[in-house]
Specification:
Elements (H helix, E strand, L loop, with lengths): L2 E9 L5 E8 L2 E13 L3 E8 L4 E7 L5 E7 L8
Length: 81
């Protein structure tokens, strides 16, 4: 299940957008770091961490420019099955 979100981005000197903040309803989350990024035929994916060390995988549909939350993990969930 993909949850629609809003993403504030920064375009660096090469013009590639990089997520800086995530908006999920009334909540906003600052992106501390981009841990990974990859492409699929129709989407760009980013694995990011926020200032509380939560991990998010987000994707951007390159055709519609719609962002979605694919995965979320809170740091307290580490090591739990």
């Amino acid at each position: 299940m993909i949850i629609p979100i809003k993403v504030k981005c920064y375009a660096g000197y090469r013009g590639e957008q990089e997520p800086r903040a995530l908006e999920m309803g009334p909540s906003a989350v600052e992106v501390r770091s981009v841990l990974d990024r990859w492409l699929s035929p129709d989407h760009r994916y980013f694995k990011v961490a926020d200032t509380d060390e939560c991990i998010y995988i987000i994707r951007n549909d390159m055709n519609t420019q719609v962002w979605g939350l694919v995965y979320y993990r809170h740091p307290d969930a580490r090591g739990k099955n």
